[in-house]
Amino acid sequence: MSKKVKYASDSGSYQTSIMVKSVLIFIVLVLLTIICLGPILVLVINATRSNAQIIESGVSFLPGTMAIKNFKTLMNDGLYSAFYHPLIGLKNSLIIAGSCCALTVFFSGLTAYGLVVYDFKMSGPMFTFILAVMMVPTQVTSVGFLNMIVKMGLVDSYIPLIIPSIAAPAIVFFMRQYMLSSFPLDIIEAARIDGSNEFRTFLTISIPMMKPAFAVQAIFAFISKWNDYYTQALVLVSGKTEQLTMPMIVQKVVALDRVVDLGANNMAITLSIIPVVIIYLVLSKFIIAGVAAGGVKE
Known about the structure:
single chain, 298 residues, mainly alpha, 75% helix, globular, disordered C terminus
């Protein structure tokens, strides 16, 4: 009888411990969600408020009624309309970010595939070199990069913004780690026995199996290139209207100090993040599917 009571007591304390841990984890996740989404929520709400309302109370969780007016200010006010052309900015940013995202993810996955699937002596030193390159900030190489594109006559061209994205050390690192943890090499051997060449194996077998990794890195690559004002301003020096990207347009809006309209500024920033949200919503299903597949054991 005493053993049953002791067992019931231990079971009850264990369940209580699990419940406490679950509550603590839930609270931490809620706090992280608020920290991550809070600024975006404030940004979107401020895009619907007037300049006076924002100055009076900078933070509000109740949307206003000035969204259309703020948008009209951006489109029709002479100070903003001289350079605020959202369709041109969206088109240029989509061309640059979309092309960079595709090249980055494909060639990074191909590089990681080669490092994991092929067993050769230089694989270790090559991976170490990739890690070393990953540690070098973009700003350190800016002077040499600018001199090179000037000598090649590529200033005011999208080519130096897109082609270098083929080399993405950080994404190669994450792709390689993903393949080491969850990529079955036996399938590659089976494909070789069946007569499939290496490139076809990568395209038809490896890429479908690595969809979650490709989706995650595509989100990161797209967001990184979409927000890359530094490199775009470095290369597109003439500032021609037809070449402006969304980060460059938003920077012009925020830097306008003759007449400051915080409502219009927040509206411009809000409109610039819509494509990023859409890309995340489109690719998030692959992330969820990958997590679900990883949680099932045979």
